[in-house]
Amino acid sequence: MAELRFDTRKIRAGYEPADNNQAVSPPIYQTASYDFRDTEHAQNLFTYKEAGYLYTRVGNPTVTYFAERVKALDGAANVVAVGSGMAAITYTLMNLASKGGTILASPYVYGGTIDAFDRLFPELGITVKITDAVLDPERLEKELTDDVKAVFLESISNPNAYLADIDAVSETAHRHGVPVVVDNTLATPYLYRPFEHGADIVVYSATKALTGHGNIIAGLILDNGDMSLYTKERYPQFYEPIVMLKGKSPADIFPDNFFIFRATLVYLNLLGAALSPQDAYLGIIGLETLSERVAKQSANAAKLAAYLESSPAVEWVRHPSLESYKYRELAKKHLPLGGGGVLSFGIKGTAEQEAVFLNNIRLFHYHVNLGDARSLIVDSPNTTHSELNADEMKLADIPSNLIRISAGLEDADDLIADLEQAFLAAGLL
Ligand SMILES: *Cc1c(COP(=O)(O)O)cnc(C)c1O
Predict the structure, then answer these.
(1) Residue 345: which of 379, 390, 300, 296 has the closest Cα?
(2) pTM for the model
(3) Atom of ligand 1 nearest to the CA of 219
(4) Among the four residues 44, 57, 176, 375, which has the most C-beta atoms within 10 Å?
(5) Rounded to the nearest whole angstrom, what is the distance from the C-alpha of residue 158 to the centroid of ligand 1?
(6) Residue 128 belongs to a domain with what CATH number?
(7) Taking each helix axis from N to C terminus, what angle separates 290-309 and 412-425, rounded to the nearest 10 degrees?
(8) Residue 294 shares a structural domain with residue 389
(9) Are 92 and 241 members of one domain?
């Protein structure tokens, strides 16, 4: 499969009809549990001598097909699918900082992620330092103390569509023995594959453009298979015996895959945000059109961005396709297939006019999701990122007049006409 090209892998990887009565479309294994053949089989499964399914919270064939397909698209070595993007992010960072320590995080991230950093991680004894030094190798260098367990950032950020130079960040972090975790939700592996740029771990909200139909909540954790960064000194949790492993450590059992193994065994198993087989099936169907969807979303977003930039109702626009874009050079180098479906703009006028504009939008859905086949619009500072305090808003570069668009698959001219009539209704044109 690794030799096949991306678009072939997105249709074929991870699933063999021959394993399932020649069924062309993957079956939904709608089962909670799996029979043991006999006592020896039970013992072999429990001691990891044999691979197999036990209980759907920690493994299900349909969920595996979905996870393996994304693994093939990203060029990852190991993968686990979980019940949401938030589960992917929290399980990953808890797995790296289970003994406490510091996570260095970019300020340009999803609102729920900031919420977890502010409210959940401190309770767990984990310090999260949110700083734009993460994006600047020279300043990052000074932050990488012995206490740091991970660097966390988004490849294309939500809601600003900012880019990060993952090659430079990874090179710096690795010199200090720290892994780089990339939330690649907005980019998807179609536009950008972080492992090719030095990332160690990739997380997804598969709720978004990866599966693309706004009909499931799902997440994934992937790694590059290089366990050498996880040293005994900085990450003793991988080398200590675990009761569930009868005195063995995760590294004893899976020397090439102990990061994902421990995330599954401790967090997916015990906190329990499992992906359902039904949702995994919908995810597989969504992946089949990943390239076609994301290419059209990127093209539609570029058209909307160009229209908005020319509109007197708009103060500024952020999208990788624009010459005025802050990271235009990086976008040319790293995003040759398109800038993604998400753009943001600053609306001119008062808060009341902004409300009239939003209330007059007819075609775009007004809600918090993104990456859907349908176009979506949202006033992020009042909704998806409303939990940020004033300092965090400033650090995250989210002005109060920011409006985020996630371009769908409609005709771009209809979308532009909808924006135009809403600007008119708000008295902005
Ligand atoms: C939506 C989103 C998440 C959270 O994913 P859920 O599937 O909603 O839990 C994480 N990161 C980014 C960038 C997102 O857009």
Answers:
(1) 379
(2) 0.97
(3) 7
(4) 375
(5) 9
(6) 3.40.640.10
(7) 40
(8) yes
(9) yes
User: For the packed helices 277-287 and 61-74, what is the interaxial angle rounded to 10 degrees?
Assistant: 30
Distance from C-alpha of 360 to C-alpha of 420, rounded to nearest angstrom = 10
Residue range 251-280, pLDDT digits in tens: 999 999 999 999 999 999 999 999 999 999
What digits encode the pLDDT tens for the residues 112-160? 999 999 999 999 999 999 999 999 999 999 999 999 999 999 999 999 9
Number of domains in the chain: 2
| Assigned domain for 1 exists | no
> What tens digit of pLDDT does each residue of 170-200 get?
999 999 999 999 999 999 999 999 999 999 9
What's the gap in Å between 186 CA and the centre of ligand 1? 9
Residue closest via CA to ligand 1's atom 4 equals 85
User: Is 261 within the bounds of a domain?
Assistant: yes
Does residue 107 form part of some domain? Answer: yes
| Residue at a domain's end among 285, 313, 343 | 285
The answer to whether residue 83 is domain-embedded is yes
385 Cβ below 6 A of ligand 1: no
Residue nearest to atom 1 of ligand 1 (CA): 205
161 and 241 co-located in one domain: yes
Q: Are residues 269 and 335 in the same domain?
A: no
Q: Is the CB of 219 under 6 A from ligand 1?
A: yes
Question: How many angstroms is it from 312 CA to the middle of ligand 1?
Answer: 33
Query: Atom 12 of ligand 1 has which residue's CA nearest to it?
Result: 110
Q: Do 190 and 85 fall into the same domain?
A: yes
Q: Which of 184, 205, 221 is the best mutation target for the ligand 1 pocket, counting ligand atoms within 8 Å of the beta carbon and taking the most?
A: 205
> Does ligand 1 come within 6 angstroms of the Cβ of 264?
no
Rounded distance from Cα 368 to ligand 1 centre (Å): 10
362 in the same domain as 255: no
Q: What is the DSSP string of 175-218?
A: HTT--EEEE-TTTHHHH--GGGGT-SEEEEETTTTTT-SS----
Domain limits at 140?
Answer: 6-285
